[in-house]
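Z., the sequence and structure:
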Amino acid sequence: MDYHAYYRKAEAGGYQEYYDAIAKAQGIDPQATARTRNAEDAVPGEAKDKLFNVAAEIKNTFHEFGAPLPPLLEGCTVVDLCCGSGRDTYLAAQLVGPAGKVVGVEPNAERLAIAQKYLDKEMKQFGYGQPNVELVRGVPEDLSFLADGTADVVISNCTFNLSPDKAAYVAEVKRVLKPQGEWYFTDVFTDRRIPQETSDKIENVALRLGGALFVEDFRRIAQGLGFHDPRYVVTRKTPLTDAEASLFPGIAFATVTCRLLNSELTSDHCEDYGEEVVYDGTLPDYPDFFLFDKDIKFPAGKPCHVCDNVSVLGLGGCRYAKVITVKGDRSAHFGDIHGDHIIKTAADWEGVVDEDDQPVMVSCC
């Protein structure tokens, strides 16, 4: 199956027109289709108080409640895709500090104009002598105005599902990220593919639902384009109205915060090099543990045996190395981190027969 084609709704020349059509189809209330609700962990603790520094019009015209902002952004270059009126952009601007930079990319001119309107006021509110925010009208599928390896972190808030070309979007994120950089975003995913006749309707996509990916197709596309090990940090059932649910019968939706590391030190399967990681407990929002994904927490100060896709947090210039140390040097390989059941449960050849009760012949094919 061509997964790239299945999720492609427009070609390169038509990305802007597609986003304009979605914006036109969305309702007057900008939060009517918000998919990251006010769950207690939807906005990081270190960002909550910084919401008060963001202009009311920016917040009131923004299309989401939660904010996918990972830890340790100080001094980073962050790219915010489909930034809308700029609420997350200005939150990130405070977290990266005056030495960092945030590039907000937005296809819709009206929404971008709101973010631009408050640029000088926001910088003054933050106490910055010069802007650390750049606002660009553009589409995530074509970030040609950004050089390769520009960003430490790429974020987006429930807008990846709107993309008319998911593979182009992922490829551009991969290109602009620095080695060991992170794509950290929240979006809606499904437990199966939405029929194309349903997802082809702009009005369904405008609901922030019709363009959602089957989560396994997202994994395949991401891995195929070089993100070896997508991780899911927080998952919550996506709230739907009865009318919305009737448009997608039998399909389950979840709003998921994702972490993808741009690292050649990772692999497409969890492999064991005998490594351990130790989290030092210094992140303000995580004094007791580091949340790597929905299944993995590192208790502060306790060595944890991990796979190569986790130990990368403390290797090769990753910014998480500020709080995570790694014991081990990858000089020995111990196979599957969980123990390879295909090998370990293999039967002896003696006595093994086929479906006709005949001895199985040893052969390479």
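The two ends are 26 Å apart (CA to CA). The first strand starts at residue 77 and ends at 81.

Let me know what you think.
H.
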